[in-house]
């Protein structure tokens, strides 16, 4: 494989590893928010922001952890025949099926960018009592989908290397 491809795979996987490891700690942020929500209910000033903020934290945790999960190959796979195939046959199947994932992620990224641009342009807010701006979580979602797409491309390069009998 060309050195540029090897560098691309190394950089994308390093970024996704760091972002994914960071995303793991967002779960603790969500737990703290929900704990504060519980505690604030016994005070005279209950918090109106906690439920929605916990939802935003969960979205960030889930979306930013997705590319790392894909990198670790910990995604769910329908495995009726796959485990019986040789590594090279698996690489062939993965190399072709990854195009469906890349198409899906491309469409998802296009929609996410359009929605984020709208949200920023019109200062879109949530229709709840707290009324937070929605663009920050939409930006996080765009970044996460982009990272997932870059990881899918890196997987494609890894599969091509396996098919060629090379290590990447």
Automatic annotation (TrEMBL):
InterPro entries: DctQ (IPR055348), TRAP_DctQ (IPR007387). It comes from the Bacteria. It is a multi-pass membrane protein. Keywords: Cell inner membrane, Cell membrane, Membrane, Transmembrane, Transmembrane helix, Transport. Its main location: membrane. It is found in: Cell inner membrane. Residues 30-160 form the Tripartite ATP-independent periplasmic transporters DctQ component domain. It holds the Pfam family DctQ. The chain crosses the membrane at residues 22-42, 48-70, 91-113, 133-157. Belongs to the TRAP transporter small permease family. The complex comprises the extracytoplasmic solute receptor protein and the two transmembrane proteins. Part of the tripartite ATP-independent periplasmic (TRAP) transport system. PANTHER family: 2,3-DIKETO-L-GULONATE TRAP TRANSPORTER SMALL PERMEASE PROTEIN YIAM, SLL1102 PROTEIN. This is TRAP transporter small permease protein. It comes from Aquibium pacificus.
């Amino acid at each position: 494989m060309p050195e540029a491809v090897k560098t691309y795979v190394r950089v994308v996987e390093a970024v996704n590893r760091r972002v994914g490891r960071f995303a793991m700690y967002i779960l603790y942020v969500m737990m703290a928010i929900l704990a504060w929500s519980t505690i604030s209910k016994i005070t005279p000033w209950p918090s109106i922001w906690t439920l929605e903020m916990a939802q935003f934290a969960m979205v960030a945790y889930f979306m930013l952890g997705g590319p790392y999960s894909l990198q670790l190959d910990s995604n769910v796979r329908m495995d009726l025949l796959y485990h019986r195939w040789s590594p090279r046959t698996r690489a062939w199947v993965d190399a072709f099926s990854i195009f469906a994932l890349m198409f899906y992620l491309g469409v998802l990224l296009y929609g996410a960018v359009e929605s984020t641009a709208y949200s920023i342009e019109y200062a879109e807010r949530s229709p709840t009592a707290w009324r937070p701006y929605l663009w920050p979580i939409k930006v996080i979602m765009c970044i996460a989908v982009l990272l997932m797409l870059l990881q899918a491309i890196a997987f494609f390069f890894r599969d091509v290397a396996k098919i060629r009998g090379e290590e990447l």
